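Following up on my earlier message about S-adenosylmethionine. Here are the inputs again, as you asked, copied directly from the submission form:
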Amino acid sequence: MSQIDNLPPLREVIATHQLSAKKALGQNFLLDLNLTARIARIPGDLSQMDVLEVGPGPGGLTRGLLSGGARRVLAIEKDARCLPALAEIADAYPGRLEVIEGDALQIDPLAHLEPPIAICANLPYNVGTELLTRWLTPPEWPPVWSSLTLMFQKEVAERIVAQPGGKAYGRLAILSQWRTDARIALTLPPGAFTPPPKVSSAVVHLTALPAPRYPANPKTLERIVAMAFNQRRKMLRAALKGAAPDIEDRLRSVGIPPTERAEQVSLEAFCALARTFDR
Ligand code: SAM
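Thanks, got it. Here's what our run produced:
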């Protein structure tokens, strides 16, 4: 393993601070600093950016971000056992790392940061999906963050970047792709983590677009898409019956055959359909 900083190897950090992985906190650690440095490079040049890292654990990714040159990192970690290890990293990078002990679902640390902001996290999957949804639906667009670099179960990552025509395509794809460029930057086998999870993982990189790809009211789009995919095997004229009595006319007016299923409908067409409700 090449040296990215003067701190001890992560296996030693874990032994010193007795950081046995807790399943309840979704702890699957990345101990290879070459790998964490590689993940930290995915958002690009961070030297003029503040980074929010959620769930730093023993700090592998944190060290990647700092050694890679991030202007400043704010890390929020729920497990108090990790704080001494993170304090050692803060000492090695004076004035550049601040750690908050807390639950990322309960506190919003974005207000503590100075834009431009990149968000980077290797989190438990359920927490990651919940936070992604929140970050993708702020009250105003563009959001305060410029990019999100997040680890997911590979199957979830595939749902984020999915195109129409397959099982993976649904609400998550539409929510993500409407206002960001989303791509899978890296896939990782279970063995990359300690302990290994059951399935493969993938890092998704999402860059905020300055404006939505196609105009639509966010609430209307969300409602239509949720209805359409809640009954994804039904034809849209049936799945969206409750949305408006004249739904068939609306579908036809934007070029969607009423017999089509949600899975076949492009993001652009969903936006056009949403606009028929806000005229
Ligand atoms: N980032 C580290 C790495 O890559 O090795 C740790 C990854 S581990 C998958 C997830 C981390 O998120 C753990 O350190 C866990 O304690 C922390 N965590 C879990 N739920 C959290 C929450 N709601 N808020 C903040 N941190 C959380």
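One observation from looking it over: The first helix runs from residue 10 to 16. Hope that helps, and feel free to reply on this thread.
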